[in-house]
Amino acid sequence: MKTxxxxxxxxxxxxxxxxxxKRTNVEKHLEECADCRxxxxxxxxxxxxxxxxxxxxxxxxxxxxxxxxxEEKPVYQTQSQWVRLAQPAFFSLVLLAGIYGGLKLGxxxxxxxxxxxxxxxxxxxxxxxxxxxxxxxxxxx
Amino acid sequence: MDEAQLIKGIQQGDRKSFQTLVETYQxxxxxxxxxxxxxxxxxxDLAQDVFLExxxxxxxxxxxxxxxxxxxxxxxxxxxxxxxxxxxxxxFQSIExxxxxxxxxxxEISENxxxxxxxxxxxQQRSDLLHRAIDRLPEKQRIAFTLNKYExxxxxxxxxxxxxxxxxxxxxxxxxxxxxxxxxxxxxxxxCV
Lengths: 141, 193
What we know:
The structure holds two protein chains of two kinds.
Chain A: H1 7-14, H2 20-32, H3 34-53, H4 62-71, H5 75-110, H6 112-125, H7 127-130, H8 133-140
Helix pairs in contact in A: 1-3
Chain B: H1 3-11, H2 15-37, H3 40-57, H4 67-100, H5 105-113, H6 118-135, H7 139-149, H8 155-162, H9 166-190
Helix pairs in contact in B: 1-2, 2-3, 2-4, 3-4, 4-8, 6-9, 7-9, 8-9
């Protein structure tokens, strides 16, 4: 009978973090299961990447470059910090002003007085009611 | 010269003490940054920023923890900030490219890789796969895993650096490995390398 694959245990098996009993079971399973053996190799090669790439040689000019940067006055950084603080503050103010302006306009538009004014102004704008097209054309003649 | 003397010297603006500190810890800082950003040039730039911060804020160091702990904290924070900024930049770039129909950078990378021998391609793919899997880990899991795997730090020291309990570190690293295992298994099943 084929036993269930134990993929999830293999990363801990590689790091030697399993109990003795579990480790023995994993080893027994690996002898029988080709898929788990393949996955173990795949996992091993993946984790080995860390071993290959860690502790790189640091550039021999590391301190020279750092020393040159130390000579630079930290004005830029101070300035950028100011900009970093001022920018959101400015945009927040603009946003708040926009919201306030919108609310103000909205409250004016919804007040009955303004509504009345708007209704009254409609006939004035309606040219046809003020001066019918017939009389306009007759005047032209 | 011991750590306390070094820091005292740096606090007084002594360049010789600073140089000694840099030479002692540069490999450690670059390696820590590399584990998070996966690019040597970026890791060196970040390490330089870390040492500049040390020099400019040395007077704030009270000596409650070891210098290395202080350096690890700054290195991990700066590396995570860089990743966040890059993500933000990529997001805006993708919007810009959507409007301007710009070239996809991913295609440039795969074009360059066509010149490499097969073995290197497989190694590179494997490396990319692992980096992507690490990058997908939640930040705390990523820091704990990186400090443990790249710097081979014991859990107790990781707990001091991250200012969390030993049990939390154990749990973070366990979950990080579980997550990595799931992502790598997914790729193994799809035969992506």
